[in-house]
């Protein structure tokens, strides 16, 4: 089971209603509560601090513009997380560096193929290793492991297939294992 999302922050209904009425102090409280999770998600998906800061600002602007659309039929944090994911993925699409070829064959994943090695517990090593992965692969890994999205949900967000998500997860996890193993060996020999 995936760890709970860092976005899983409960907001009192009255705070959301105050923000919907345009109260600046309510927006400020919401911003403070969600600034870190939005920035972290954006950083993990984009891999760049400046872009993550831009995603944070764009997400919050969109929140302020669209808060009247929030109806309460899902948790507020889930609604905001979706805005943040969309903003980050939109930035990645705009970069348009090198499109990855979509895999046509279905990838069967065993549990051991998607579990990260124990070294992944070290956040600094993991962040460094994630930064070495292609954008799409890093995004799939983060959305799957950290945010708890399914392959179908990731595919819909990225405009790809579930097979693409599965193959990126499998390849990325293998690459992360290699990167983290190398980092461990270098660190232990230093």
Task: Give me a quick take on this structure.
With 190 residues, this protein is an all-alpha fold. Helix content is 68%, strand content 0%. It has 2 domains: 13-95, Orthogonal Bundle (Rna Polymerase Sigma Factor, Chain: A); 111-189, Arc Repressor Mutant, subunit A, CATH 1.10.10.10.
Walkthrough of the structure:
The protein is an all-alpha fold. It folds into 2 domains: 83 residues, RNA polymerase sigma factor, region 2, helix turn helix motif (Rna Polymerase Sigma Factor, Chain: A, Orthogonal Bundle); 79 residues, Winged helix-like DNA-binding domain superfamily/Winged helix DNA-binding domain (Arc Repressor Mutant, subunit A, Orthogonal Bundle), CATH 1.10.10.10. The longest helix has 28 residues. The C terminus is likely disordered. This is RNA polymerase subunit sigma-24. Pfam families: Sigma70_r2, Sigma70_r4_2. Keywords: Sigma factor, Transcription, Transcription regulation.
**What's the main sheet like?**
none
CATH names the topology of the largest domain as: Rna Polymerase Sigma Factor, Chain: A
Helix/sheet category: mainly alpha
The tally of beta strands, per DSSP, is 0
What is the alpha-carbon Rg in Å? 18 Å
- The succession of helices and strands, N to C, reads HHHHHHHHH
Q: Class of the largest domain in CATH?
A: Mainly Alpha
- Overall number of domains: 2
Gross morphology: elongated
What percentage of the residues does DSSP assign to strands (E)? under 5%
Helix content: 55-70%
Unreliably modeled segments: 98-114, 116-121, 183-190
Counting DSSP H or I runs of 4 or more residues, the number of helices is: 9
Q: CATH superfamily of the largest domain, please?
A: RNA polymerase sigma factor, region 2, helix turn helix motif
Round the mean pLDDT to the nearest integer and report it. 79
CATH architecture of the largest domain, by name, is Orthogonal Bundle
Give the CA-CA distance, first to last residue: 36 Å
